[in-house]
Amino acid sequence: MMRDFVAGLPKAELHLHIEGSLEPEMLFALAERNGVAIPFATVDDVRAAYDFSNLQDFLDIYYQGMGVLLTEQDFYDLTAAYLARAAADNVRHVEIFFDPQGHTARGVAFGTVIGGITRALDDAAITSRLIMCFLRHLSEDEAEATLDEALPYLARIDGVGLDSSEAGHPPAKFARVFARARGLGLKLVAHAGEEGPADYVIEALDVLDVDRIDHGNRALEDEGLVARLVDEGVCLTVCPLSNLKLCVVEEMGLHPLRVMLDHGLKVTVNSDDPAYFGGYVNANYVAVAEALGLGRADLAVLARNSFEGAFLGAEERARYL
Ligand code: ADE
Ligand code: ZN
């Protein structure tokens, strides 16, 4: 069965926002533990609210949800729960995004956030990287200030990314701060072509010099760009259930993943914000496999791509590839 084959494949997950792994049950538990009011009476009420028409609908609820995260232990518990869930899906390596500005703006210290996350990463059996994202609806100066705050913790931060509301916030807005991050030895990624145009993917490559593109769906609108992404072997971290829930695709049968594979793009399958989009990594593989008729060979390519696109050292590469 397809489900068993997917479950048996060792995988890496390269596009996962740790705050997006906050399950409704933990949302309630932390709200109670911390005395934070939430506008829901039951877990079912919460799930009913996860009905999105676009990225911004989701982001509004996502930023509200992370308001229950206050202490180092909260960030530990959140991360430990995700890592256990990922391990159950036979994920061997994870590259986790976090949104420090979503926490520091609420008065939670940068050190509290990174302390809890890294303590959970250190306790886990699977290997990991940590990627700090800048919120693109905020200014570049605010991203610069966030990078300043991260300086004492750079030994624990492997890369920077760019997330939040894409339309109207092109990658070039963050040219300076990405150049500084590069100078600090950090890997660079950016969400591009989720809702924004193919030109944002080009800007992420040309202006930010990113090592991977997160999503990249709309790159398919530009033939020349597709040829370049294939030629340069740029990894795309695609998120099928996210795309469906945020109406980036109308139905899973119309998801571009098969076309991407057929072009020879280095695509990977990831869960993005699994607590909000209805499935962890294996559920994402199964959803596209069923809707697009992907076979075992395709699924094995996707899993292999996930390790090839990862920021692995030589010893880890040898272990996984
Ligand atoms: N933040 C969390 N998930 C995101 C997504 N899919 N796109 C942009 N920003 C995000
Ligand atoms: Zn994302």
TrEMBL record:
Site keyed Important for catalytic activity: positions: H215
Cellular compartments per GO CC: cytosol
Keyword Protein biosynthesis: no
GO BP: adenine catabolic process; hypoxanthine salvage; nucleotide metabolic process
Adenosine deaminase domain: residues covered: 10-321
Alphabetized NCBIfam families for the sequence: aden_deam, PRK09358.1-6
The protein's name: Adenine deaminase
The organism of origin for this protein: Sandarakinorhabdus glacialis
Taxonomic placement: Bacteria, Pseudomonadati, Pseudomonadota, Alphaproteobacteria, Sphingomonadales
